[in-house]
Fold this protein.
Amino acid sequence: MYQGRKAVESDDSKAECCNPVLSPDNRLLRTLRGEVAKPGEPPPIWFMRQAGRYLPEYRALREKHDFLTLARTPELACEVTLQPVRRLGVDAAILFADILLPLLPMGAPFRFAAGEGPVFDAPLASRADVERLRIIDGPEMSYVGETLRLVARELSSVTALIGFAGAPFTLASYLVEGGHSRDFRKVKQLMWSEPDTFRLLMEKLTETTIRYLALQISSGAQVIQLFDSWAGILSAEDYARHVLPHSRRIFEALPQTPTLHFGVDTASLLPLMATAGATALGVDWRLSLITARELVPKGMPLQGNLDPLLLLAPAEVALSEARRVLAEGSSGPHIFNTGHGLVPETPPDTVKRVVDLVHEG
Amino acid sequence: MYQGRKAVESDDSKAECCNPVLSPDNRLLRTLRGEVAKPGEPPPIWFMRQAGRYLPEYRALREKHDFLTLARTPELACEVTLQPVRRLGVDAAILFADILLPLLPMGAPFRFAAGEGPVFDAPLASRADVERLRIIDGPEMSYVGETLRLVARELSSVTALIGFAGAPFTLASYLVEGGHSRDFRKVKQLMWSEPDTFRLLMEKLTETTIRYLALQISSGAQVIQLFDSWAGILSAEDYARHVLPHSRRIFEALPQTPTLHFGVDTASLLPLMATAGATALGVDWRLSLITARELVPKGMPLQGNLDPLLLLAPAEVALSEARRVLAEGSSGPHIFNTGHGLVPETPPDTVKRVVDLVHEG
């Protein structure tokens, strides 16, 4: 069994569950304590972006409310969080929110442009812009705490509740690039040309993220996933020097909570990411779970890694590849997931068939 | 020394040089035969997209001619090919062309849209579209042969002449996606949903590429680089099943010529790519050359891997990182290059300083 930091602290495992309704013994939490599924026993399964536009019941709600209203109204966000749990029978609910939400009270407004994703009309462009950002505390994000409390009340004991946040580098990349980026050149230039300003930005994002995640944990989140979605654009050298210390501070600040650490394109960063302090690492579809196991400490739980676009392929192709992922993951603790978020065009029926395959073997 | 396929055939090395003016003993060719630079001896250096918009002398020509005219007029393409050799003193000239050029006579017209890159107004959408594509032979690309003959005449014996082509998967992705793509979902769906049609497309592209590269070699190209720029979007499973056999056929068809095989994001594919048959592998900046050496056969030459965006950073940062790349590459045969093509905003002076650093140690 994995002898990492969190496993050593497993005597505290009772403290991991903040809501008495939720059980510390569901499949996800057991896997995060390093248990390997026995032959015939299914691994836990959930999907990144399992709540969202591919579900007709989500689209029905979105017709009445814009995205930010859905995410910031606890009753609505709770309903959206629960939709995939009801339809799919996945082993975890993940808070319906967006990694960018804490940036609003920090003083960095953004909007969602059709087909473009998030757009910051005033991307950070100077030291003064970074200095103006506020470190936020709990109250500004209290709607997220309320959502988690509502969800926890509705979940059965077999379903885990996952909270999440964006990692400082990924948040910084949106703030500096002003949205999605092809080559992330602005945030790289800030990192290389003004390392002190970049560090100040990372520190503010780190501090905010720690407080935001503490709020989520005290509101019922049993597991936290830190999304460093775009860290894979960096060289190992830059990641180690400019990014890893900040992500490490976040995990150090959450010693009681099982944590997942995920990014795309991390094949060359994985040995470094394994030192950041998370309980488990999520990997994308590029890296087979067999190879990933060779890059992380023995017994460390891994999450992934079906290509989410396979769910758009004929169902028999998706199921055959899901069987491969199951087999590749089975030599250690494994949480079945996609290697990135589900896309809006995903047929829910194929997703359900993958869940059933994983649960029924 | 590397005991791979090309090294075993090194008795044929004289045959590698098709133009008597060019020497088989320049730094690049020696490294491709597996020689490691001795302490104090510089490795060869060239840059992907070293001819192009970042050079004022290129922009001056572009003001008078559009891109396709430059690429298809041998005298102009020769001049553009030589510009970076004159200014920078790099160890290789690379043919000025575009990987998409052979697609024009195949029957797949495209245009370059400002800020968007190449656009195919009629992307491949059916089996019939793929069946209509023509396999091309030498004559349609004879302007490239003429360019290479002109360049070979101008190069001094210390400068190698590199020809290149796009690998079948990367060409297929442009043909099916219709241009650049964020997630390559159309080409993946074709691969998964209609594997026979996808294979037919790959076979046509493979056959065309073999003939196109044979033309380049007979016209004076001493080294060939195969750009599988976007292969890194695939899982190792998909790469091995749907892509590798085609790339392998290309290298098998060029047994006398030293070859470079490059893609971005290939950290998880590198062990497979090392079996495709190229003499050397190029890697992007994500993967340190030290790690890359552990993933390929002992002594296999590696090319790379400075982040090209570092050349936009303050020169002292770029030079410091170039020193790191030099050190990381020095434990085996190493060709210094960037990890992807130079971008138009690159300051030529910084590029020159990196060349001088590498040459002067």
The interface with chain A takes residues 183, 185, 188-189, 192-193, 232-237, 265, 267-269, 285-288, 291, 307, 309-310, 312-314, 317, 321, 324, 343 of chain B (CB under 8 Å).
